[in-house]
Amino acid sequence: MEILDILIIGAGPIGLNCALEAKKNNLSYLIIEKGTIVNSLYNYPLYMRFFSTAEKLEIAEIPFISAAPKPGRQEALEYYQGIARQKNININLYEKVLKVSKNGNIFEIETSKSKYAAKNVIISTGFYDIPNLMNIPGENLEKVKHYYTEPYPYAQQKIVVIGSSNSSVDAALETYRKGAEVTMIIRNSEISENVKYWVKPDIENRISEESIKAHFNAELIEIKENSVVFKDKNDEIQEIENDFVLAMTGYLPDFNFLKNSGIDLQGECLNPVYDPETMETNIENLYLAGVVCGGKDTHLWFIENSRIHAEMIIRNILST
Ligand SMILES: Cc1cc2nc3c(=O)[nH]c(=O)nc-3n(C[C@H](O)[C@H](O)[C@H](O)COP(=O)(O)OP(=O)(O)OC[C@H]3O[C@@H](n4cnc5c(N)ncnc54)[C@H](O)[C@@H]3O)c2cc1C
Question: Taking the alpha carbons of 192, 193, 199, 204 in that order, is the dihedral positive or negative?
Answer without folding.
Answer: positive
